[in-house]
Description:
This protein is an all-beta fold. It has a single domain, classed as Porin (Beta Barrel), CATH 2.40.160. It contains 1 helix and 24 strands. It has one helix spanning 8-16; strands at residues 29-42, 46-47, 54-64, 67-75, 87-97, 100-110, 118-122, 130-134, 139-144, 163-168, 183-188, 191-198, 201-215, 231-246, 251-260, 270-282, 286-297, 335-345, 350-359, 386-397, 400-411, 416-417, 431-432, 434-445. The strands form 3 sheets. The chain has an 18-stranded antiparallel β-barrel.
Amino acid sequence: MNFKTIGTSALVTLLSTGAFAAEEPIEKIFVDYANYEEYIYSDSKKTEVGDQVELEMALKYNFNKDTFAKLRFETRPEDNRFDNKTSKFETRVGHKYNAFTIQLDGEFQTNEDSSGGTSFGLDLDSEATYISYDINSNFNLTFFPFNFDGEVGEEFNTWDVTRIYFIDGQPSAIAGTQSGDEKVAEKTVPGFVLTFAKDDYKAYAGIGKATYEYPVNASYDLVNNAVATRWERREDTGYKFGFSYDNDKSLKLTFDYVTHTEAEEAGSLLETAASANLLMKLPKNILLEAEVTYSKAGKAPWNVSRSGNWFNETAPFQPIYADTSSNVQDWVGKSDTAFAIKAGVVMEKQTPYVFVRQQGEHFVFIERESAHRLRTADDSLSHGGLTRYGLGTKIRAGNFSINPEFEVLKAKNPVFTNSSDLRADRINSSFVKNDYLLYLEVNYDFGGQELFSF
């Protein structure tokens, strides 16, 4: 369950056509879009309404055809649930002047410390802050000062592959208990993206660098010898490229690839990821969508707490993803793939469909079905290979769409909780290999709902 964010190639389309669509009102506040996603019910967790809701809504105001302001609310529980920081308000301001477009993405932070308080500033890991320049009718160069959008995949969204971590505070030793001002800091790789667009074709390539802090002494090892004699600043370099074809009537094809050089030192969840997606309209209004996504996990991914400022396992101290015996989990440093196929029939007001999704035992992405999240009782094994199949329908009603979906999940290893056997110590609980769930997504878009889409 993850909102489909606008990737770099799609972003360039918006930039090249101006900041706003012609039909949007001027000098009037309106709802730009609203999205709601939630797991409603599952056999393993029973009723889940309100537990993992994802909600996103944006109000927009166009000062003129070249300048806008937007107020956006978002809640994403997989991000973190520390105090109310899983929910946030964002403000976006954009302006287009001749060949240049600039957009700033700011956010409000509440409950900043134990005494409360609110702050406002730039969102420091947002790909929505950028400066763009149309070189000519075909080429566009965009600078992303915080995040050059290092994620791939739609059905299997990876989140930011180029998200890195480091210890802020330069301590002489790192242990389970934080001392002084030390904390885990995280950032995403900023950079430049060059895009070529002509007719129905687009291609892009991007490069970026991010600085992180790391101990100089060769004997340093975060797990076995977390003693630092001196620290230095090092750089992680990110690369990305992709292409797409979209005739907006019968065929859409995309491919995206992203990697970075220092995933191991920077504690990244992923080192590399790639994804290919096909959407095709066949005779008799049959709609077919297919996706293949590849992930290569980092060799030393940090297991950071949901509050995001320290490690999750502190007693005993285990900074890298490990099982209950302190052995590194099986997916770490491994490569794997996942694929999904969806087939439906486009009707006047709805598109019913069936689907199959298959994940390799070491495939890692952002959702709860990932190999690093769906684990056996002692965390030693992933699902071992996960098959998911089911049916759903996308109902269109004006600017709204409603998408209920029923899914059956079958794993090779017991990884789903037994709702009648919950214990304080997870390792003593019983787990099962099968689960089923009901999922709901509701969307509103000012521009209306696409007929050629699921």
